[in-house]
Design brief:
The chain is of the alpha/beta class and 409 residues long. 37% of the residues lie in helices and 17% in strands. Helix 3 packs antiparallel against helix 10. The longest helix is centred in the last third of the chain and has 19 residues. It is globular, with a radius of gyration of 21 Å. The structure holds pyridoxal-5'-phosphate.
């Protein structure tokens, strides 16, 4: 089939997909480390890693081997039976998080659904008949009905919610990064929990002030509210710690994970500590696929490789380097409002919407993302290497400079 034939073939089949995504006109055939190749054989530096998923990059030999070995042995049995790999993964996650137990699902939204259900159980246990959860402006927690309701009300998020009413009730919104705004609800006897991202991802790589999570921990302790951290995007080494809250030396009561956990194989997890451990019992929550042998084998390979290769320290160091380089190279560009982030979760905020930069970067062989319309978001794989960071910074800084000068076509 010639090139035109291939195009018509793809166009016909694409039209059979419900158009829920604004897809870019490119498809990838294979990858290696931080590189991806498209159907025409063109190479791209992947500074997005499937939106924070491919923490070990593409085609990592240890994930590949784990999946191959496990698939030749056993894919799935269901949670009607013991799953030793799930037990091993649960124990390892609890060790890294210093938490007590885990429930496994298949995605970030599912992990947060579990958290929301835990908050309600916690509320009812405390005699609250209509328990509420404090959530943040600019938050993103997923696309199921409850997580959509927890997702906050910026323009894009309002669009995500539009037409799906009635949304589940029970959420109270406050400004992100302002512990006093949470404390202001201390008189409200209906509140059972606070749900927050340690750094907002979809909201535009928004980093709260230092001490924010510690203050929330104190408020939750005083009020007997559950502190529930959505670490779906920030977790699994992304910010230069196993989990972003560890930068503040606190432990949440509930933590949701997904994205990087399986390195590309779908898996989500909801971890609990302390009194939150006893909220779910047999029959109160469940999932057919959650924590199946294949997904757990992949996640174990991810966690063990991160540890064996010291990728947390690596991502922390590299993140600082990239931030410094951008700050230096863009210091004289007036349209750059801020370069921020933690580890390899980085944002460059401009003073105007810049989604066009995604296309311009891709045309130059670089994959990036723009969140909240004016924040360039970088979530490269943790295995990124210094020569690749140079390429990333040089290419992107030149594009930003050109864009801010009004020269971008
Ligand atoms: N929570 C956060 C912080 C996220 O960034 C996302 C996805 O971007 C989700 C939840 C939803 O995860 P999923 O798409 O796996 O359901």
């Amino acid at each position: 089939m010639g090139h035109d034939g291939a195009f018509i073939f793809h166009a016909m089949h694409e039209s059979k997909l419900i158009p829920t995504y604004n897809r870019q006109p490119v498809a990838f055939t294979h990858g290696e480390g931080a590189w991806l190749w498209d159907e025409q054989g063109r190479r791209y530096l992947d500074a997005l890693a499937g939106i924070a998923v491919c923490v070990l990059g593409h085609n990592h030999p240890r994930i590949t081997a784990a999946i191959q070995e496990q698939s030749a042995r056993l894919l799935h049995t269901s949670n009607l039976y013991r799953i030793p790999l799930q037990e091993e993964l649960g124990a390892l996650l609890c060790k890294h998080a210093q938490m007590d137990a885990v429930f496994f699902g298949n995605s970030g939204a599912e992990a947060n659904e579990a958290a929301i259900k835990l908050a309600r159980l916690h509320g009812h246990r405390r005699g609250i008949s209509n328990p509420k959860i404090i959530v943040m402006d600019g938050a993103f927690h997923g696309r199921t009905l409850a997580t959509l309701a927890a997702t906050a009300n910026t323009k894009a998020q309002a669009q995500a919610q539009a037409g799906f009413e009635p949304l589940p009730e029970g959420f109270i919104r406050v400004p992100f990064g302002d512990a006093q705004a949470v404390h202001a609800h201390a008189h409200n006897a209906d509140i059972a929990a606070v749900l927050v991202e340690p750094i907002q991802g979809e909201g535009g790589v928004r980093v709260p002030p230092a001490g924010y999570l510690r203050e929330l921990r104190e408020i939750c302790d005083q009020q007997q509210w559950l502190l529930m951290l959505d670490e779906v995007q920030t977790g699994v080494g992304r910010t230069g710690a196993w989990f972003a809250h560890q930068h503040e030396h606190i432990t949440p009561d509930v933590m949701s994970l997904a994205k990087g956990l399986g390195g590309g194989v779908p898996i989500g997890a909801c971890l609990v500590a302390g009194s939150a451990r006893d909220l779910f019992g047999a029959g109160s929550h469940g999932s057919t696929f959650g924590g199946n042998p294949l997904a757990c084998a992949a996640a174990l390979a991810v966690l063990n490789t991160i540890k064996d290769n010291s990728l947390i320290a690596h991502s922390s160091k590299l993140g600082e380097l990239i931030k410094d380089q951008f700050r230096t190279q863009l210091s004289d560009v007036a349209g750059v409002t801020e370069v921020r982030g933690c580890g390899l979760m980085l944002g460059i905020e401009l003073d105007q919407p810049c989604p066009v930069l995604v296309d311009r970067a891709r045309e130059q062989g670089l994959l990036i993302n723009v969140a909240a319309s004016n924040v360039i978001r970088l979530l490269p794989p943790l295995i990124l290497e210094p020569p690749q960071t140079d390429l990333l910074v040089t290419t992107l800084a030149a594009l930003i400079r050109e864009f801010c000068a009004g020269d971008t076509p």
